[in-house]
Amino acid sequence: MKLAKLKKIILLLVFWPSIFLIYHSFLINFNTKKYWYASNFSNKVDIREPFAKQLSNSAKIDDFDNQFELKLLLNPNFLSTESKEISNFNLEFIKKIEKSRLKFKEAKTSKILPIVWFYFDTENDREFFVKNSIENSFISRYIVYKNEGDKKIKPLSWYRYNDELDGYNYYLPKTPIDKFKESLLKNIKIVNFEEQANKDKITYKSPQTKVGAIEVKNEFNFNYMGYFNSNNFHINDLGSIKKWNDVKDGKKEPYHSTLVSLILGSKLGIDTKSTSYLSIFTTNSQWQKAIEWMVETNNVRVINHSYGATGKDFYDYKENAFFLDFLARKYGVINVFSAGNGAREYSDEEYEDHPWIDDEKLSLNSIVVGALDDNSEPWKIAKNKIADYSNYKTGEQYNELAKPLVVAPGRIYNPVTNNFKDDFVNGTSFAAPIVTGLISTLLREKPNLDNDNNRVIALKAILSASAISPDHSDLTKKRNGYFEKYGSGTPDFKNMLKASENTYFIRDQKKSDQETIFTSKPFWVNSNDRIKASLSWMFNAGLLKNKVAAPNKSNYVSWWWFLTHFTSIGLPVAGAAAILDAKSKINQHKNDFDKWSETHINSERLKLKATKENQKGDFVSDYDLYLQKLDSNNNWVDVSWSTSIKSNDELIDFKAEKSGYYRLYIKKFKSVTFDNSVEDKLALSYLVNNEK
Hints:
The chain is an alpha/beta fold. The chain has 5 domains: 1-32; 36-145, Alpha-Beta Plaits (2-Layer Sandwich); 160-445, CATH 3.40.50.200; 472-544 and 614-692, Jelly Rolls, CATH 2.60.120.380; 553-602. It is 28% helix and 21% strand. It contains 13 helices and 26 strands. It has helices at residues 2-31, 83-99, 123-131, 174-190, 194-202, 256-265, 284-297, 319-331, 428-445, 455-466, 493-499, 571-599, 608-614, and strands spanning 45-48, 70-74, 106-109, 115-119, 139-145, 160-162, 210-216, 233-237, 275-281, 302-305, 334-338, 367-372, 406-409, 411-414, 423-426, 503-508, 515-519, 523-525, 530-537, 600-602, 605-606, 622-630, 636-642, 649-655, 660-670, 680-688. The strands form 6 sheets. Strands 6-8-9-7-10-11-12-13 form an 8-stranded mixed β-sheet, with helices on both faces. Strands 1-5-2-4-3 form a 5-stranded mixed β-sheet, with helices on both faces. Strands 17, 18, 22, 23 and 25 form a 5-stranded antiparallel β-sheet that branches. Helix 10 packs across helix 11 (493-499). The protein is globular, with a radius of gyration of 29 Å. The model is unreliable at 1-32, 152-174 and 565-571 (pLDDT under 50).
């Protein structure tokens, strides 16, 4: 009996470590699970972090279920580039996928671009979908957004559009609103908008503009609907995941989208005459659909974006930035971005600052706004300092870009609360809508600028030429004349109105280099006056002058190819020859179509890679700006210049020592336009005596 017990003990001692090692090995394998896309099995597959994670420091985003989001960039095979045709193609593609019996949970489509999104119940379903459609010639690229770990937060509700905005019961806290108005009035004075604001209060029949805000995650608080113009505020909540009803005691309330909207286009905000639009997103498809809802459905041309990436990593220029540049170049959409609040580069175990102006904010045709610090005052504009949190780094490849373009007050009283948690907040998120409101108001006051051809370049040049330059001893200037942290300086609305009267528009299609393409009329300048001038032009975003249609299959082989005329005796031989000939032509069409698809988004637009290849690796042509003075010998002499290479904005800030006649001219050093490229569009604006 004792011997049997001894044997059992020996067996346990021998086998227990083995059992432990097997179990431990299982745990290791489980915890270091490799996902199917880690093998890089196809160059058509691009793996990215969840779209929401790029925009938030919150650990809760790791638990958010994006429903295994899959974005497909498609290759359409048709001639038209109309949005209706593209939308129909996207819908037909989804129908074909349904017929192929590939399993998916839900699908979304773009109205402007050949892009669709699919969502799945499991990662296995997404893997099966990708691997079994990888040979589909209509799919150019798969973008897989990670959805790793245990998901605890329920999937978002996809669509809620509120059009009828009357009849809400709301409680309007008085004292917090008064504090908000006081703090905004101070900011209004800093950007010299007080006179225009007072004018708008007593003008009841002024033409209205449209202005939009795209926000991430934060639900709008409908208690504040009464502060917006009746029937002139439209909300498109595609997927807010931070809900007011879910806020627990002591937790931060989701005030962001409401506060940005109040600053931008409410009765208390900057542009009080606007029809305002707000769209809220979390996923990439919702981001795209939010913009399309603004631009395509509602014809909004000025949009505020107070959001950005998080974490220490730099996000390069990709298809989202390319899409924004396309909208600016084709439709004249002005996208205004907050610079971001990570310049201090603070980090701990739960939080990490994002110090970059990157990702969508790198779009060359967009405006980026930094923030002034909390001690800024209306009586010391040039002496106001940049906030230490305001981002200004762009990465070495983009360090010549005018980002930020301007800086504005970022401190505001936050009245948006359900539990009386109102207090001051700060950030570039609240500086950007001030500038966006100035832009939409200027377009209302100067309707000659409000057209798709000139809107973007005009406002970038006018903002730059009219801004109050900072006056500090430790400033760093870029080669294009903009300050590294301040851009051109602090916006001044009265100066914007003046500069708009000194604005020229230039078109340049010539591919020649080293030539002067424009010279302004002479203008008189007194001694000690300041001359500030800005030149801005567009990244053409692959737009073509003449459409290049995709190869049409009917031009290669007739649908009735098998009805070839031949004798009955020669039927077998002739039939075989016809089959071989048709197959050869079909293969030729496929090869030609694939080659076309590698370079074209559609018949009027190239892909980003093809665009840069046609433009010799550059985004934009190289134009420089010069200021001349007429000397005593009646000769024009260069006295100041801005000569960057990779920027699409140039700035001159010059204090005249002597009175006299001055003029500006533009010299082109290198053109990137190619045979079928659209022309370069430029705007030049200047202002004399720009001091405060």
